[in-house]
Write a structure and sequence with these properties.
Elements (H helix, E strand, L loop, with lengths): L5 H4 L2 H20 L3 E2 L5 E2 L12 E2 L2 E3 L4 H9 L4 E9 L11 E10 L3 H15 L4 E3 L4 E3 L5 E4 H8 L4 H6 L3 H9 L9 E4 L11 E2 L2 E5 L1 E6 L2 E8 L4 H17 L9 H6 L6 E7 H9 L16
Parallel strand pairs: 1-5, 9-10
Antiparallel strand pairs: 2-4, 3-4, 5-6, 6-15, 7-8, 10-13, 11-12, 13-14, 14-15
Helix pairs in contact: 2-10
Length: about 300
């Protein structure tokens, strides 16, 4: 008799919890009046982001996010939509990263990024009604007021240099990852807000200070869980930002990407809206107390 694959068998309790969490996520959005949608995984063009590489699929690519297609649905009059789907990003593999992972994204007309912060809190509290998350070395309170910290404030508190210097020297991402992120969300979740507009290509700039965007990332126990913003709906400005990001990609020696022309054509039809991408595998880690992403997925690339 063939022995079971014990490495896979041991995952059963966590996979049962994962299934229940995903069902609860769906229930939350359906009860809030959201429509669940499915968009193609293989697309002609992703948004050209400097630090995200797509997986080629013939002359097209697998999507790095369903964002482009979901915003086209917003433009067509679908006011409240959500999706749970697989996404692919080349070269992402580590304790908190997989090259193929599960994303939750939701978009809503008539709101801004502040409203998404409230929805994030409502979602987490619906999943953990006791108001806390048990992590290996600490307890995270969901019931207490959640911390809000601007990127500039976070760099002043935790980074070896101020935000402006980090941008000028080209080490913003490195310092954010190494020095800032590990300090965020240690007692309550942290909303890291007001990203420099140059680091928020699809986000609307703040009217009172266009140097920063209406963008936040959500951190819990030092782990980035979600990225959200008020939507930029100016196709001319969006094309300029895409071109700037594509120039950064090429300067770094990366594969040139085409622009998502259908999205740019329809962008002006999007009303005031906001959207968010949340890593579901990471959410399951946080909800179950798991220490690495490998524990909460059925298969990692090395197990295939």
């Amino acid at each position: 008799m063939t022995e079971p694959n014990w490495a896979l068998a041991r995952k059963k309790p966590l996979l049962l919890q994962r299934a229940a969490i995903l069902q609860d996520v769906r229930t939350f959005f359906i009860e809030q009046g959201y429509l669940e949608v499915e968009t193609p995984h293989r697309i002609p063009a992703n948004a050209p982001e400097p630090h995200i590489d797509a997986v080629p699929s013939g002359d097209w690519a697998l999507h790095t996010s369903p964002e482009i297609a979901m915003k086209r649905l917003l433009a067509a009059g679908h006011e409240k939509i959500f999706q749970i789907c697989r996404v692919w990003r080349e070269g992402e593999l580590g304790r908190h990263h997989l090259p193929e992972f599960t994303m939750l994204e939701w978009y809503r007309s008539g709101i801004d990024y502040h409203d998404l912060m409230a929805e994030c809190k409502a979602l987490l509290l619906s999943l953990a009604p006791e108001g806390k998350l048990e992590r290996p070395n600490r307890e995270i309170s969901l019931a207490a007021p959640w911390e809000k910290l601007t990127v500039a404030e976070a760099f002043s508190s935790y980074a070896p240099m101020e935000l402006e210097q980090a941008i000028e020297t080209g080490c913003f991402e490195e310092i954010l990852t190494a020095d800032v992120e590990p300090n965020l969300g240690k007692t309550t979740p942290t909303f890291l807000t007001e990203y420099p507009t140059a680091m928020a290509a699809l986000a609307r700039a703040k009217s009172e200070d266009p140097r920063v965007a209406e963008r936040f990332e959500l951190y819990i126990d030092g782990l980035e869980l979600a990225n959200a913003f008020s939507e930029l709906t100016d196709p001319i400005e969006q094309r300029k930002r895409f071109a700037a990001d594509e120039e950064r990609r090429r300067a770094a020696g990366k594969t040139p990407y085409p622009l998502p022309e259908s999205f740019l054509i329809e962008l002006a039809a999007i009303p005031e809206a906001a959207g968010i991408a949340l890593g579901l595998d990471r959410l399951v880690m946080l909800m179950t107390g798991a220490e690495k992403i490998d524990d909460v997925v059925a298969f990692t690339p090395g197990e295939l």
